[in-house]
Write a structure and sequence with these properties.
Radius of gyration: 19 Å
Number of strands: 6
Shape: globular
Keywords: Hydrolase, Nuclease, Signal
Structural class: alpha+beta
InterPro entries: N1-like (IPR000026), Ribonuclease/ribotoxin (IPR016191)
Mean pLDDT: 81
Distance between the termini: 46 Å
Low-confidence stretches: 6-38
Protein name: Ribonuclease N
Pfam family, one: Ribonuclease
Strand order of the largest sheet: 1-6-5-4-3-2
GO molecular function: hydrolase activity; RNA binding; RNA endonuclease activity
């Protein structure tokens, strides 16, 4: 019985050490400013002044769309990758063609739904869950 308890304590210690906020995350923190915690992601200049969301906090479908973008496709919707016009002017102003949009699947929706990932040529990623009414900069 005492061996079982000792074994469980060792497993618990290993699990807790792996969940420590100062443990390396493997996600890279080269952009983390001095004084930030090791697991945090610095807010890039292009996202200053706007709402942000860490990639890990996006809906699972949005994370899948980001993985498809990283791989270059193939995309499930014919309109994925088209130019996003930014007609609502919620994103920083750039020349036409700077932004592109990708569908984030919405479970239960019969069409593309309202969720999108917008990419910018400067490496920006934005998420909208309400069909361009609001955006959050995705921190990766």
């Amino acid at each position: 019985m005492s061996r079982l308890i000792a074994g469980l304590l060792v497993v618990l210690a290993v699990l807790l050490a792996g969940c420590s906020p100062t443990a390396p995350t493997g996600s890279g923190t080269s952009g983390t400013p001095t004084g930030a915690s090791a697991g945090s992601v610095a807010t890039p200049g292009w996202a200053e002044g706007m709402a942000t969301v860490p990639e890990s906090r996006l809906p699972a479908e949005a994370r899948r769309t980001l993985a498809l973008i990283d791989r270059g496709g193939p995309y499930p919707y014919a309109r994925d990758g088209i130019v996003f016009g930014n007609f609502e002017r919620h994103l920083p102003k750039h020349q036409r063609g700077y932004y592109h949009e990708y569908t984030v699947r919405t479970p239960g929706s019969r069409d593309r739904g309202a969720r999108r990932i917008i990419t910018g040529q400067g490496g920006e990623f934005y998420y909208t869950g309400d069909h361009y009414n609001s955006f959050r900069a995705v921190l990766r």
